[in-house]
Each structure stands twice: as C-alpha cells, then as structure tokens.
Amino acid sequence: MSDTLTAISPRDTRLQKQVDALLEQEGIRRDGNLDYTCGILDDDWNLVATGSCFANTIRCLAVDSRRQGEGLLNQVVGRLMEVQAQRGNAHVFLYTKPQSARFFGDLGFCEITRVPDRLVFMENRRRGFAGYCAALEETKRPGPAAAIVMNANPFTLGHLHLVERAAAEYGTVHLFVLSEEAGPIPFAVRRQLVHQGTAHLPGVVCHDSGPYIISAATFPSYFLRDEDAVIRAHAALDIQLFGSIAVCLDIRCRYVGEEPASRVTGLYNAVMARDLPEKGVACRIIPRLEAEGRPVSASTVRQAIHDGRLEDIRPLVPESTWAFFHAPEAEAVITAIRAEDNVVHY
C-alpha cells in the first residue's frame, strides 16, 4: 500500500469533502479557524488521515478507523510541526480529546490543563505554562489583588470605569490585555492605550495575556456541537487556567463588564460567576457605563470611526484614546477600521 502525504488546498472540493467526512467519523466538526490542512491519501487517492493548523495551534486531527495503529497520525503531526517551524513558531499548542492526550505526550507535548471529559490543552514546552506563571509571580505585590481581562479594542471610558471600580476595592489590579491580533486595531496600539488610560492608577499592573488566557479565535470549537456548548467549554478552560494564574498573584476577584446585548458574553460571565469561586476567586459583573442613555462600548467607537464620525467618539473615550485617534500615527489604524465590512463583532 502506497500512501501520499500532501497539503490540501481550500479549493480542492473533493478532498475538502473527505476531510469533513473523516472528521465527522471522529465525532468532530471542521474548525472555523484553519489556515493549513494536510492529509494522507491511499493509493486510490482516498483520504485516510488529516490534520490542520491555525496560527501556532494544531487541530482537527483524524485517522480512518480502518487505518488506525499504523502511525499515520505521527506523520500528519510531523508535517504540521514542519509547517509551524517554517512559520517561525517554536512554541506550539494543540487541543485534543482526553483519551488522546497520552499519545501526544509520547510526541513531546505536555498537558497544560483540561476540561474533564471534554478536552485537553497541551503545548510542546515542558515548562511553558509554569514559566509564564513564574514570570507573573515576579510582579506580585503585597495583599490580595483583583484582575481584569480585556481586549480594549480600543480602550474606552467603559473599560476605564471597570478598572477604576476594581482599583477602588483592591490595592492591586492585574490587567491582562489580550495579545492576539483580532480586528484592525493592532495589539501594540491597544496595549499603549490601556497603559496611557490607566497611568493615573498606581495600583494597576498591565500584562500581555500571552497564549494562556484563551481568546475566541484560538479556542477549539470543533469538539462541540452547538454554540452554547462552545461558549461554556471555552469559559471552563479559561477558568482552569485562570485559577493557576490567580494563585501566583493572590487574585481574589475577577471583574467583568456586563454585556446585555451579547448572549455570548452573558453565558461566559454566567459560567465564571458560577465556577470561579471554586478556585477561590469571586466574579464581579459590573453594569456598563452609559453615555447619553446608551452603554459605552468599543463597538460603538469603531462604528463611529468606520463611518467617518470621528468627533462622535469624544464622550466615549479617555483623553489619551481621543488624542491617539487625532494623531498622525493613527491614520493607518483609521484606514484599517474603515476598510472593515463589520466592525462590531470581534
């Protein structure tokens, strides 16, 4: 039997249908975030194994049940690791079902955490997450602390309101800015605006989220059948990781903003409010700041910029954010926002 390991083009509809069928056989669905797929074809040019990448993650792995035990998955993972090396990604992550975790351990992947009976989050560094936590611990200050995780896309008065509420109740607030690139405002700009917007609050310690505070784009939705299950599992994985981070920094409370218009955020917040206390961390859901009777949101700010109504953001953002969008360095960001079809949902 002669097998061929090959990349699978998004335009190859025949093989793409076989990828879907093979994933379905394994009880998973195609992930919405894939940027490379490969597969092993038998001598009749039928797909017998497949795997994919998204950014620095490996996902959507499957082998035909009639060919399992032949080492095909090793070949697929080997190719995917070559692709990651070509991209310059030395630090690689994967998500797998609990029953497959031991196999990937034999390939050099180490478990970071798991959601029991659902999924295991792994990386190819033995002390990756431990090193991340050790670095965070160096920023620890005396006394209990609060935490906030935000995209800040861009940093608004609503974000500032949340930070100030936390700072009024805790001497230290660890503020994690999601470092994944999502949307037209680069991470470097978002981080800059958060630093500038909170500079008057000495208790705020800003961190890049890194790869361990999970974002929607990197979460593996392909294990789960419906959107609500994805959201709940995403939150459960976040809570598992955040529990370890909280211990490092003596975080006693995580503050989140209420999002009445978003079912996704509402479900996520509900899971955190229910489960974070089991990790010794309270969850405070803070009502949204309003301006002129409407909630202040980053989506509203982006929409105004998109529509050429830059002056309309004035009552919605801190002085530092306002100044940035009126400076020459913001021209590329404004152009990128205006080029987007939909600036609301990310």
- The helix-strand sequence is EHEEEHEHEEHEHEHEHEHEEEHHH
Largest sheet: 7 strands, mixed
Average residue pLDDT: 90
- Residues in β-strands, percent: 15-25%
Helicity level, as a percent range?
Answer: 25-40%
Separation of the first and last Cα atoms:
47 Å
Tell me, briefly, the overall form.
Answer: globular
What's the count of strands?
A: 14
* Gyration radius over CA: 22 Å
SS-derived structural category: alpha/beta
Query: Helical stretch count?
Result: 11
Q: Work out the oligomeric state of the chains in this entry.
A: single chain
Strand order, sheet with most strands: 1-2-3-4-5-7-6
Q: Unreliable segments (pLDDT under 50, ≥5 consecutive)?
A: none
Description of the structure:
With 346 residues, the protein is an alpha/beta fold. The chain has 11 helices and 14 strands. A hairpin with a 3-residue loop joins strand 6 (110-115) and strand 7 (119-123). The radius of gyration is 22 Å and the shape is globular. The protein starts with a strand and ends in a 7-residue tail after the last helix.
Give the tags.
346 residues; alpha/beta; 37% helix; 11 helices; 7-stranded mixed sheet
